[in-house]
Amino acid sequence: MKTKQKLQRTMTSRHITMMALGGAIGAGLFKGSSAAIDMAGPAVIIAYLIGGMILLIIMQGLAEMAVRNRDARTFRDLVQSVLGIYPAYFLDWIYWKMWVLNITAESVVAAIFLQYWLPNYPIWVLALFVSVLVTIINLLSVRVFAETEYWLALIKITVIIVFIIAGLSLIFLTFGNHTAVGFSNLNDHNGFFPNGTTGLIMAMLVVIYSYGGTEIIGITLAETKNPEQAVPKAVRGTLIRIISFYILPFFIIVTLIPWYEVNGVPESPFVMVFKMIGVPGADHVMNGVVILAIISSMNSGLYGSSRIIYTQAIDGRIPPFFSHLSKRKVPIYAILLCTSALYIGVLISLFAGSKTFEFLMGSLGYTVLVIWLIIGIAHLKSRKKLQDQNSSYSVKLFPYTTWAAIITLCAILIGIILTTSLIVTGVTLAIYIFITVTYFYKKSKLE
């Protein structure tokens, strides 16, 4: 009998920390920021603070479950051992759907920002170029992929830090022809909550979508050295940075620019702020970083979605063909299946153009929220199910923090249902029903 090929454990906490950052700091931050600010105004800072606190609790729960279940390869294994087959099956496929749609949307966003330099090229041509590039990176070895993702994430994090320093200087300091902006923009244009509580709730869909991707740490378990040590370390290092890289930049944007001027412009709000600095070419540097950031997020997304297909094939849930590894030990056919969505996205962008991203973002926000809910519920029950496992990592204030996160997510879900387009809600619900129907069709094979 032929020995099963296995993924190699070549990623370290350094790699998965940057991968989580790469997954979360992408189009949601650089493009979705415009929509979030347009909905909530300066109160978007509060929205991202709430989202960040929920993310902190959910990721700590994920880390604890990973430490207690050392045989897990993805968070499907973590959830199945606690909640059973259906929730794990549902989680796996909505997570796959999330990343496939996300990389499709982000290829279009990358093309939009490339048009800042190449206005004569149509979006679909530029989206095709980005899609081919990301495909090639993922078909190389896991080590090459991880190193590429590490350096892409490091570049954008460095520039975001520069952005924060420059932005705070513009707010507080007077120099040359520049006068310190101060905090007037936070209240002068219909107040801090210009669109009221409704605007804040509507922005939460974009917020949750923007933070989505961090949980990709749960997909790396099979290819991480000493996951019981690396995952908690990566969670601790990642969360502080993500919250900082969202809340501080948004504070700077809405302080420097009147909130109503942000939406409806071709460039990212980050590029708008760099224009204010007055340094020649600063906006082009920032635009380049934004594009790298989105490619980095696509990189993480293609990795996550292909590993879900790989583990499904290994478990016999889809044809074993997709579990085949190349000589470089990457699941080549799983990757090619997931990249097919990129090229479908290219075709869609041929007709829909920049609207592709806006249409998909709502459904993606729903999916991230549901994923967090499932992880939170699993963590709530995990200590009873895995109580015999020794754990070197435990979440403090359990179960109170986990309950707080679950209740808040449910409240946000109700608010989003009441304030979001019926088309987006209906399409998302149809996808969830389809996944559920396929589960009952395959139920006998899964048990």
From TrEMBL:
Species classification: Bacteria, Bacillati, Bacillota, Bacilli, Bacillales
Subcellular location(s) of the protein: Cell membrane
Protein source organism: Cytobacillus purgationiresistens
Predominant place of localization: membrane
Domain Amino acid permease/ SLC12A positions: 15-425
Transmembrane regions listed in the UniProt entry: 45-67, 99-117, 123-146, 153-176, 196-218, 239-260, 289-310, 330-353, 359-377, 397-417, 423-441
Keywords (A to Z) from UniProt: Amino-acid transport, Membrane, Transmembrane, Transmembrane helix, Transport
Membrane topology category: Multi-pass membrane protein
Pfam families in alphabetical order: AA_permease
Protein name as catalogued: AAT family amino acid transporter
Protein's UniProt keywords contain Oxidoreductase: no
